[in-house]
Amino acid sequence: MDQFKNYIYNILLEPSIKSELEYFVQEFDKNPTAYDFLVDNPQSVQENYKEGYIGLSQRYAKAQQMLKKKFPGNTHLIQFQHQLYELGTFYLHWQAFLPTIQMLGTPEQVQYWQDLSFNYQIRGAYSQTEAGHGSDVQGLQTTAVFENNSFIINTPSASAYKFWPGQLGIFATHTVLQARTTVNGKDIGIQTFVIPIREPKTLKALEGVDVGDIGPKLGFLRADNGYLGLKNVRIDRNNMLMRYTKVDENGQVTTSSKNAIKYGYGSMLNLRVSLVNVFSIFGLFTNNLAYYQVKPLLKTQSIENEAIMFRLLRSYVVQYAQIIANAQVKEIFMRFQQQLKANDKQANETLQLVHLYSSQMKSISGWEAVKTSREAIQIAPFGHLNASDLTIIYADNVPFVTYEGDNNVLMQQTAQYLLKQFGKVSGGNAQFTGMASYFNKYTQENNQKSQLQNQEEILERLSYSYCKKTMENFQNSLINGHSLQSSWNELNQCELIKASIIFGYTNIYKQMGAQIKSSGYNLELLKIHKLFGLFIILENRTTIVSFGIADFKQVEILAEIDQQFSNNNKLEFLEYLSNGVGMYRQRNFINIDWDKLNLQAKL
Ligand SMILES: Cc1cc2nc3c(=O)[nH]c(=O)nc-3n(C[C@H](O)[C@H](O)[C@H](O)COP(=O)(O)OP(=O)(O)OC[C@H]3O[C@@H](n4cnc5c(N)ncnc54)[C@H](O)[C@@H]3O)c2cc1C
Predict the structure, then answer these.
(1) Which among 123, 128, 131 is positioned nearest to 200, based on CA atoms?
(2) Ligand 1 test: best mutation among 92, 94, 97, 135, most atoms within 8 Å of CB?
(3) pLDDT grade, residue 219 (50/70/90)?
(4) Is ligand 1 within 6 A of the CB of residue 165?
(5) Residues 6+ apart with CB under 8 A from 31
(6) Exposure of 396 by Cβ count < 10 A (0-12 exposed, 13-18 middle, 19+ buried)?
(7) What Rg, from alpha-carbon coordinates, does the chain have?
(8) DSSP per-residue letters across 377-423
(9) Which of residues 303 and 254 earns the better pLDDT score?
(10) 369: pLDDT strictly greater than 60
């Protein structure tokens, strides 16, 4: 059991903080009561989120002092505090504001802002979205104009107001902000700036700054999502993050490489890759809550349990599949960073791969977390009651599909990629490449039913056939005289998204297989992999049959795995899966024995 937990723990945590965490756990075990400030009081947060927020920030400050004492000069655990207790409150300060500076700033800029952030002298937000421009980043209207060694920042209309950023509403003193930038009359694209917005002690808005909370919303009770308007706000030239594009005091613009903007964006993908794990862990916590609440009834067989067990099993397996597959994507991201450092030409191609994998996985894991939490409410005996904790989690999970890239928009980027791949191959001389290269195995066949060897083959064939058919339909719309706009937006959009989703699930299956192989085979991991394949196949069985890939009987042969699970086996396996991570709030997936703090009594 611990082996499984350790496996998940090891692939979830950054190597840099693992040793610090281990030390932390040792210290905690010696004197747990010294750490009781880590315990959350969810009730007060629900009743008054602002007070809850202040309470949490005080706890953070305390934790900060303690961490600094233990790890002087070491920064990882400070920035990754959410691994210890809270995911919500200062998440954006540590995981969006600061990383943006670390990735897009020069070493001097990073040092400067990092020191201030670690000391809580400043608290930061991440302001990209505008009231009128979310997915359409190129349409951003906030402007930055270079003038006298400074930039003048403006939000020229209501639709240019920054809208939604977490922490902006009440507590942020600064924000990173994207703006269309002009230097000596020349548009140099969207650049990122650090903007002071409030006086740190009084939290009073600075001159020219119109900032506030956007008000009550579904979920995210602890996050003070806000709006921000700027009128002729002058900031120092050095507040533009200049790792890739520099502007000197005379307005001379230099870019370190012609791919600078792309690479700047590439560094930011780190956030998306890490969100896949966040969504999946949330999915697992949610499932655990539902499972622990329904378990006594399952054990006594007092309710019809076959369907419940299957739904729980599916949720567990999908979330683990995402985490395990994401470990491969993390590796590709690390490769991209190494190639970037070494000025390797391959960096471009690797970047495209990270972009595609991470946007597919962000979307699928977001959708799956919402699905899991909705199911959990239905499964738990008092799921709809706030006391079950599940309603709060559900509300927190719902926006996963929207922020950090709307899922339907992200999926259409995969559709564009697929279209390019099919376009290239339709000429007759080229082959599928990159993540679509497995399609080459099936191009010569005319879809006759064959003896299917394994799950991977059935999923690959499903993915190839669905994508091929969708891309052909799209091309036919063009051939029949419809415009590009109408062929994409009006006639084929839903199917283009659906094809990309099937392609995405197949990629997760394949990446997970590769990860299990590279980490040494383990029976339980293989079982999770098999079950993941099984669920995806069963959910698409009508499509599989209608494409002539297999008949119902063949699909059922693969589905026999399900009969190998008697109800007792299912329960045993559920128990096993529930132990891979701990409970929401107890955070025992990092092996801290929270019971020592009498946590239950405090809840
Ligand atoms: C809880 C929460 C927290 C957030 N935190 C932050 C933050 O800290 N910082 C920040 O900058 N932003 C934040 N956001 C904003 C978030 O990133 C945006 O909401 C998101 O990018 C989508 O933009 P939008 O809301 O303008 O919707 P739109 O982009 O306008 O999308 C609306 C609908 O139109 C569809 N659509 C849009 N474009 C297309 C297209 N080309 N083809 C087909 N369909 C399309 C979408 O699928 C969606 O259904 C947050 C949002 C939420 C809900």
Answers:
(1) 123
(2) 135
(3) confident
(4) yes
(5) none
(6) buried
(7) 25
(8) HHHSTTTTSGGGSHHHHHHHHGGGGTSSS-HHHHHHHHHHHHHHHHH
(9) 254
(10) yes
* Ligand 1 centroid, distance to 45 Cα (angstroms): 26
Local confidence band at 560 (pLDDT 50, 70, 90 cut-offs): low
* DSSP secondary structure, 240-277, as one string: B--SSEEE-TT--EEESSTTHHHHHHHHHHHHHHHHHH
Distance CA 163, CA 156 (A): 14
Which is the closest atom of ligand 1 to the Cα of 404? 17
Whether residue 241 is predicted with pLDDT greater than 90 in this model: the reply is yes
* Buried b or exposed e, range 487-501, using 16+ CB within 10 angstroms: bbeebbbebbbbbbb
Q: Bridge partners of 182?
A: 145, 187
Give the pLDDT band of residue 59 (cuts 50, 70, 90). Answer: confident
What's the pTM?
A: 0.92
Average pLDDT for residues 335-345, to the nearest whole number?
87
Is the pLDDT at 411 greater than 70? The verdict is yes
Collapsed DSSP state (helix, strand, coil) of residue 206: coil
| Cα–Cα dist 100/400, whole Å | 20
Q: Kindly give the distance from the C-alpha atom of residue 569 to the centroid of ligand 1, in angstroms, as a whole number.
A: 43
